[in-house]
Amino acid sequence: MTSRERLLTVLNGGIPDRVPIAPFIQQEVMADYFKRADTDRLKDASIMAKELGFDLISKNNIHTKPFFLKKSFPNWEVEEKHEIEDGNYFKITTIKTPEKTFKQVEGVPYKKDILEGIHYVTREFMIKNADDFEIFRKYIPKQDDEHRKEIIEKGRFALDYIGQLGINAPWSCGGVFNLVCTFIDVQDLLMDALCDPAYYKEYMSFFADISRQDSECYAESDYDVVGLQGNMANGAMMGAEHFKEFVLPYEKRAIEPLREVNKPVLYHNCGIALNLLPCYKELGIKIYETLAPPPVGDTDLKEAKELFKDTDIVLCGTFDQVEFLKKGKPSDIFAKAAEIVEIGKVGGKYIFAASDYIEQNTPLENVKAMLAGALSTAKY
């Protein structure tokens, strides 16, 4: 089988020739591999897949910025600038409306060799209270044809470019809870759900509709899978009852247009998740990642396989890339990868990967050992 055939077989509920081996490749590891900062999650990841011999799931981030932050509209003037200060790299976004100028400040430690695909921490949020939200909602533009056209064209290009190397699974603008966390402090989200449920419902429904509109665009595209980030609503942040009442309905609403056309959805939580796994069974997703083991997460692969055995959900992940892949001996890494695949391949519905993206300063020999170990026991 080709890598594409292998991955699609798994997504369609079949048993392929072997377990797909598809590490999460983004700018951190590509900067090391190619010794340059301007890396691309489709083109450069395809080169790495060819050279290292893994099955590619291209998790491009070119669509993560919501359409209303990409350009200005009438009564909605967008400006984005970047600054370096005290060893930190800041992105400052402002939106001018007739009634208010919104400002968002996001920062990350400065790395001159990685300026794309990085994960910011928000220091100042655009929406601080209900009055802000009402003005934001009043002037936000409607999604235009240009946004849909971009997704359609880039989806078609990605399909042609990747060929038989694998599949495309770009990140959308959200996961509804994740999307709202972009504009409203997560502490406020947690408190509003309990102390001001009417306000919480208003803004969660508002952003769910934005995410849903994105899903409608992806439903028409040639992308194989659509990625939704769900890591902010993690098991350390909330319990299963809170998730079921205050997160699950909005995530399902956003996913629905994709379910209607059988477009697979990949849902991502790279941290604590064990208490939320039963909830994920209700989301309507096709792939759940990343099954992060302790100490970063709390998910055991064998336990997760048992929990999801009565579903058609494919599990992806498990290998610890935070500590073990960076610091372990190649022989130990080989053995651990082989052990994980032996557990994961029982009954199918498993894709081998790390518990998140492979990080910078990971020795290449260790990455190769992980891939070789996984391959050694991958055949069905």
Helix/strand layout:
Elements: H1 3-11, H2 27-34, H3 43-52, E1 56-58, H4 67-70, E2 77-85, E3 88-96, E4 101-109, E5 121-124, H5 130-139, H6 145-162, E6 166-168, H7 176-183, H8 186-195, H9 197-219, E7 226-229, H10 240-246, H11 248-260, E8 265-268, H12 277-280, E9 287-290, H13 301-307, E10 314-319, H14 324-327, H15 330-344, E11 350-354, H16 364-376
Parallel strand pairs: 1-6, 7-8, 8-9, 9-10, 10-11
Antiparallel strand pairs: 2-3, 3-4, 4-5
Helix pairs in contact: 7-9, 8-9, 9-11, 15-16
Task: Describe this structure as you would to a colleague.
The chain is an alpha/beta fold and 380 residues long. The protein has 2 domains: 3-70 and 141-376, Alpha-Beta Barrel (TIM Barrel); 74-128, no CATH class. It is built from 16 helices and 11 strands. The chain has helices at 3-11, 27-34, 43-52, 67-70, 130-139, 145-162, 176-183, 186-195, 197-219, 240-246, 248-260, 277-280, 301-307, 324-327, 330-344, 364-376, and strands at 56-58, 77-85, 88-96, 101-109, 121-124, 166-168, 226-229, 265-268, 287-290, 314-319, 350-354. β3 and β4 form a beta hairpin. The longest helix is centred in the middle third of the chain and has 23 residues, at 197-219. It is globular, with a radius of gyration of 20 Å. The relative contact order is 0.13.
